[in-house]
Design brief:
The protein is an alpha/beta fold. The protein has 15 helices and 11 strands. The longest helix is centred in the last third of the chain and has 24 residues.
Length: 474
């Protein structure tokens, strides 16, 4: 499978047709999807119609956009008109949205071709894609192991060469963690840079949409397309999409990069070694390395697992069997709603709804949710102080390489700890990028993470590109 940049160039120049590129993608999906369980729905007819339309426009001499003919996998919590959108939940099985998410419209306007919807942890609640109502997705690099989550299907689509680009959502690390476990670039943008309109909400103050790709340039191209103000999203930043591809080769000479102890402590030895090698690569590229400790980051996991479930308990109240999706009959409205939600939601979703409802309940709100919001403020302040000393921060993305199926499902806390290094930037709303850098156990990829202040995506892509080159990927 060609990468995003080469595909768009070749299609626009007439060196390849959009249809031929699409057929390569569909053939690979047919070849590996049964084994990996990546796609929940593949829209072959719609994708072919889009590819033919692009080829027709190019034949007429039109410029069809920056992502001309690029096949894209969409996480199945992104709405696409009349395409099944389930959030990997039985409660939405068969639902077809009447509208597109803004990011889908922007992909289409740039000439990209959505090919289908990918598996995820139900309602994006999980770190392994084992919580899907439609079965787990397998890691293409080792099918005995998880691809990460919750955007595991999107990561697996790119890692398995089914598409060169996928979109995921990141609430507590759900783009970066699977990117690390599958050896990909994964970007969580600044909060508000990418419209959330048409993303089925998990935790509205934390959710962000971003790309998963095999190269830094590909990720920059994709983010340029989907970013920018959207009046349909009240949290959207009131500014145009930033220039990102132009900064990929800027380097890190003269930059101060802070190595954060709390974003490394507790990681496996091979992960720590990869971060140390990344430090040396950045230093050789001209960066000044600063050792930092940010103790507030240790509180992030606890705060996140109060704030996110609290917001989820509110957002998921709309799935009641009345308006759309699953409906299980009962003797009255209350029993119908109870039966519908009991049958429709999986165990992890039920766990988080109950946690969130408890945290918001009378008598506990101040002690739990209120305290978590104070910790969030402490985290934001801690980031601000850190960025007075450093331009970017560096740490591990995940504590380990991809773990085996079932190894953490019996212990929710062990699973939650998979996101311990990614959660702080969700709490602060600031951007971060995971870059593959070296390998660990069983030759599996390790991801290192660069973090920056709000709207510093250009600097992050430049730093990520330095690491990409140092890791032997020109």
């Amino acid at each position: 499978m060609r990468n995003v940049r080469d595909t768009a160039r070749d299609v626009q120049n007439g060196d390849a047709s959009a249809l031929s590129v699409l057929e390569e993608s569909l053939a690979q999906i047919r070849r590996r999807n049964e084994e990996l369980n990546v796609f929940l729905h593949v829209d072959e007819d719609g994708a072919r119609a889009a590819a033919n339309a692009i080829d027709g426009r190019i034949a007429r001499g039109e410029n069809v956009g920056a992502l001309a003919g690029v096949p894209v996998a969409l996480k199945d919590n992104l709405c696409q008109t009349n395409i099944p959108t389930t959030c990997s939940s039985k409660i939405l099985e068969g639902w077809r949205p009447p509208y597109n998410a803004t990011v889908v419209d922007r992909l289409l306007a740039a000439g990209a071709i959505p090919v289908g919807k990918t598996n995820l942890d139900e309602f994006a609640m999980g770190s392994s894609t084992e919580n899907s109502a439609f079965g787990p997705t397998r890691n293409p690099l080792d099918t005995s192991r998880v691809p990460g989550g919750s955007s595991g299907g999107s990561a697996a689509a790119v890692a398995a060469d089914m598409t060169p680009l996928a979109l995921g959502s990141d609430t507590g690390g759900s783009i970066r963690q699977p990117a690390a476990l599958c050896g990909l670039i994964g970007v969580k943008p600044s909060y508000g840079l990418v419209s959330r309109y048409g993303l089925i909400a998990f935790a509205s103050s934390l959710d962000q949409i971003g790309p998963l790709t095999k190269t830094v340039t590909d990720a920059a191209m994709a983010l340029e397309v989907i970013a920018g103000h959207d009046p349909l999203d009240s949290t959207s930043l009131p500014e145009p999409s930033p220039s990102l591809v132009a900064h990929v080769e800027d380097g890190v000479a003269g930059k101060r990069i802070g190595v954060v102890r709390e974003l490394i402590d507790g990681a496996d030895a091979d992960v720590v070694a990869s971060v140390e090698r990344a430090v040396e690569a950045l230093k050789e590229a001209g960066a000044t390395i600063i050792e930092l400790s940010v103790p507030e980051f240790r509180l992030g996991l606890s705060a996140y697992y109060l704030i996110a479930p609290a917001e989820a308990s509110s957002n998921l109240a709309r799935f009641d069997g009345v308006r759309y999706g699953l409906r299980v009959d009962g003797d009255d409205v209350t029993s119908m709603m109870e039966a519908t939600r009991t049958a429709g939601f999986g165990e992890e979703v039920k766990r988080r709804i109950m946690l969130g409802t408890y945290a918001l309940s009378a008598g506990y709100y101040d002690a739990y949710y209120g305290q978590a919001l104070k910790v969030r403020t402490l985290t934001i302040d801690a980031f601000r102080r850190a960025y007075h000393q450093a331009d970017l921060l560096l740490g591990a993305t995940t504590p380990s390489v991809a773990f085996e199926f079932g190894s953490k499902t019996a212990d929710p806390m062990a699973m939650y700890l998979s996101d311990v290094f990614t959660i702080p930037s969700n709490l602060s709303g600031e951007p971060a990028i995971s870059v593959p850098f070296g390998t660990g156990e069983a030759g599996l990829p390790i991801g290192v993470q660069l973090l920056g202040p709000g709207r510093s995506e250009g600097q992050l892509f430049a730093g990520a590109r330095v690491l990409e080159i140092a890791d032997g990927r020109p």
